[in-house]
Fold each of these.
Amino acid sequence: MGYPEKYAMRHNHRITPILKNSDREVEWEFTAPRQGAYQFDLKLETMDDNKTPYLALSLRRDELTNPFGPVRKIVKLSSGLKSYTFYLPLDKGLNRGTISLLNTGPEPWKPFQASAIFPIVLKKMVVSIPEHRATIAPDFILIPVTNHCNYSCVMCSHGVPEKKPSLSHFPEPLAGRFINALNRSTTSCHVALTGEGEPLISPLFFRIVNDVTNPLVKFHFATNGSLLNDRNNKWIVKSPFSHVNVSLDAATPNVYRKIRNAPFKPVIQNLEQLSDAIKASGRSDLRLIINMTLMSENQNEVPAFIELAGRLNAGVTVNYLNDYNYFHDWLVERPEFRFDYKEQILVHNETLETTVTGYQKLARDAGVPFMIDEVMRPLLGRSPGGKLVRPSNELTNDPPISGCPYLWTGDWRGTFVLHSGGELGACCLQQPLGKVIDSLPLEEAIDKVWNGTIARQTRADILAGKIPEPCSGSNCLFVALQRLWNEKFYTVDSERSRID
Ligand code: SF4
């Protein structure tokens, strides 16, 4: 069976969203026919370029279900009648956001009243499902800054002697090119300095943050929290970070020790200090998040974890364990805990779904931002055909993989990865789309891969509902839902996935 006619027709459907002017910003509203990346084309007329302000297109998300806050794309304006293209990852249904002008001053960026700066006229705004080719560079980028670590958590390769990675930092020459590219950027960039290690161990981590002076670039990172000492916390609140994501996995010393093989109390003291430092700084654009990888051993700790987050004025993200064959012979035996990876993986069932809904309600009632982040590590089950799928009662006519936005744009859950060997992937689970060459400035080298044949074919496949080759080994949410969809409903129409 082919694709529903409705879906095929929507590829070229262009829709003008509802716009509403307020004092300081233009509000937009758009009902997306499906989840995925959308292209926003804005036509603006500006009369004076002396002040070189910036324009921000923001997507508002429910603060209580998204600890990371809104997704915001910023571009430097030039004078005259100009068109600007942005990509946003929208949910199916109603999406809301704003268009505003920003100053370039210290944090947080304050919206300007447009008329107070110079005349600017929004001539037109059109939203459409994007094409195979992305015209602008990726704006959420992950740099695996180091794989050195001072911890040995049971579910990480640092915790298993025979799986320990060979230790290295991200290469200096590539880091230098990256810093220069970020300083030249005229569009906003969110950079995750996170890899299979503890970023605060790496001198490069501090160098990248200190040497990037472009106000369009913001950083975030995941850490085990052990090195969030007074000196580092003071530096963090003065630096352009948007959030600090601390992996805790437990709300009690006993379970923390079992999973992370370290004492709980010093890390909690560090977090209390960081929370106080953020409060004292007055910054509303810097968030503290604590995260938990959910498994059999710690699933009962979620209510206490929410309470801990409330005390720390932090948001919570929860992920599930990875489910790949690679993890099925994974065993860590310690005096206090025997961790058998495959037995700890939670499997989708109705009871667990009800429990998780209960956690979401608990967090909402407590006013704690709480997100179960299933994009990269969904809760899986087996289909009747024996495939690893994400069971769902909500499959629609749209092929689920067409909802993956990451070949066009990132968000807090999915980022473009520049691996230490120069390979590039749209997310951390995807096989590389290519490798940057040395002879070009890094942004041009990235663009060659980002808009190259493999990337365009991958986009074409995703829009057509076909699992692309670079994503075929992944168990991400989109691939796992697509496997279920393929078994239940349709076969893939190969004609629709050919690139021009
Ligand atoms: S593996 Fe492919 S489909 Fe899955 S999140 Fe990454 S880019 Fe999207």
Note: The two ends are 23 Å apart (CA to CA).
Amino acid sequence: MNLNEERFFYDLNSHDLETLIAKIQTGNPSYSLEKMIEKGLLPDKTQEIRNRMSQIQSQDLIRQKEEEERLRQLQNNDFRKQQIIDFCNQIADNQKGLEEIKISILNGVVSLDEMAQNLNQTRLTPEIYNKIGYYISGKKQVDFYLWKDLPPLLSDRTDIYFFGQPASGKSCILANMFSYIDKQGLIIENTHSLVGTQYKNTIQYEYDLGYLPERTAASSDGVNYITFELTDPIKPEHKHPLNFIEMSGELFDQASMGGVSDNNLNAKNYLNNNNRKLLFFVVDYDRHVQNTLNPDGNTPQGAKMLTILSLLDQFGTFKQTDGIYILVSKADLFPAGVDPVQYAGDFLNSNYMSFINNCKNIKQKYKSEFEIKAYPYSIGNLTLKSTYVYERDYTWAKKMIEEIVAKAFSNKPKGGIFSFFR
Ligand SMILES: Nc1nc2c(ncn2[C@@H]2O[C@H](COP(=O)(O)OP(=O)(O)OP(=O)(O)O)[C@@H](O)[C@H]2O)c(=O)[nH]1
Ligand SMILES: [Mg+2]
């Protein structure tokens, strides 16, 4: 034992607790607790040291656990952050649609706040982020009628029908047209079909914000009837009273497969009333291309269109028809650089020849003057997996309005005489 040790052990019991513990904690075997006991450390003091030492040990343990937890949390945060960044980038890369994003957010996969916090590290623009926020909190649901609830069609108007299979783009085309005529100030409202007017206003308003109409619920036999007067853009004194009738694609499919029942195509004798009619057939370009790549075994659009033509023939609809328009929808997906009108025509000629020939036969059969015309149609450029329009296009709405104005029944103000304005 050296001099220092001797001195220390000489008045061992007079050292305070901290000094004793500090000595023990040096790890020097000459100052171990056992050594101190051997040198006469009082039992009380021994016990106190033991208590204090085990307290220190457990505090160390807690601290160590906390540190481990902190590191794990940091790793988790990094992981979480990366998850959010990946989620946002997938949106920016057009891999997620609005509804899918909404479901992920409602299920807590990510939150809007977390997205906002990390936005500047992602490719997602604040504009699209805000659109997602509004979609989740504010987008309205639109109702469709059931046939039984529809008001009768107003007479002395031109009825404009939209036919096409589910998701072919009918509602989007209407939203785009309504938005166009609203912006041009060409619309005079009519409250005869209130739900129809509400539907029109909603899809137009949503389209103006970039959102698309909801798909008509698969289970319902939805139909909408929208009525208003269209002002001729060139001769504003001419007003065209119109009835727009949009049938859900589901109903179109039902009719094309199982024929007509009281519940579907002509439940209200709409199709054989005395109003003049313009018929729009919407052929889904995108679906056609997808089906060519991956055939799905469903009835092709052309075949359904043919069935509908023969049903309309049975109703005598063509006796009142002033025009058949075949719209090749989603024309923004045509190959880059093509002339859209030419391309739509060629596309129909190569793929829908028998439908076109049948239209021509009908025209001959009824010795009608009416025109059969084909147009491409696009509502603009879409992103978010085709659920959001970031750039609106009114080229085709303008063309269709010109067609409608040229063909539709006109209600001249002076003298109140009705005349057919062609
Ligand atoms: N790229 C592109 N996609 C479009 C266009 N118009 C519609 N779509 C897409 O097609 C989907 C279906 O369009 P809708 O207008 O709802 O189809 P619909 O014919 O009314 O369908 P139903 O209500 O089921 O009868 C939209 O949600 C868009 O994703 C377009 O001009 N371009
Ligand atoms: Mg629809």
Note: The chain has two domains: 59-138, 145-419.
Amino acid sequence: MATKIEKSDEEWRAILSREQFRVIREKGTERAGTGAYDKLYDEGVYHCAACNTPLYKSTTKFNSGCGWPAFFDALPGAVTRHVDNAWGMERIEIVCTACGGHLGHVFKGEKFDTPTDERHCVNSVSLTFTDTDGTVKPQ
Ligand SMILES: [Zn+2]
């Protein structure tokens, strides 16, 4: 099981880009269609951009057309859900279990043709993709 990673804002700022800090630590959202991994379908694993914990396999990624990377399931235990009542809507926020970094939200019952009928809508900047050779694909 992943260990809890705790850092101060200053420490996170030192390792994350401005945009990553805004999204991951301040629960921001990148602009739709701007993420480097939105249309990426190479085989590999998506890690947390903040702490490098593996979160999603490419085999669970699908094209939702929503403008952000979409997955129908996470690696077991890698992602933790919280109810988010921001903006007057009840949504399910997903964070990296290991470091608490904001990933995005889970939407259910949208009838995408996936095994779970869930869409993990994840900010591309919250992820680091590594292909099967271990090569990191840059943002
Ligand atoms: Zn993390």
Note: The two ends are 27 Å apart (CA to CA).
Amino acid sequence: MPQVTDRIGGRGDKKRLPGHKEEDARPRTDGARADEFQPKILIFACNWCSYAGADLAGVSRVQMPPDCQVVRVMCSGRVEPELVISALCRGMDGVLVLGCHPGECHYTQGNYYARRRALLLKELLPYVGIEPERFQLKWVSASEGGKFAEVVQEMVEGVRRLGPVGAEWG
Ligand code: FES
């Protein structure tokens, strides 16, 4: 099981999206102002499709938001709901799980399990005081570098509208 605590860093964490270099993140061209809230997003990416998609986005030098960290997992079905909640409770503003398209999971049904869990998790999150929009599950294949960038950007914009996680907790 991946250890979230090993992967989450502060805003100064130097981990980057695969294929991206430090200078790729700056200057900002994603429309965000320098003084605007920059959400920290944790991305669990399936090794076989979505991580390769992230790599393709990096190799294609697609501009990405700076505060996104990718954790490579073997399958989207490996991401337990506890990991998502743990990440959100430890300071990530949003969690994005990316997997192979339905019918293309390398372990046959992993992404179907992930989809079922995602529905339950979205129901559960309000009970722990977290907006369900802070968690998303999407499908990105190895050839969809552009889609990877779009999905991440959509996530960042959605979470930016919500503000920092836990702001309402006092
Ligand atoms: S191997 Fe990619 S979602 Fe299962």
Note: The radius of gyration is 15 Å.
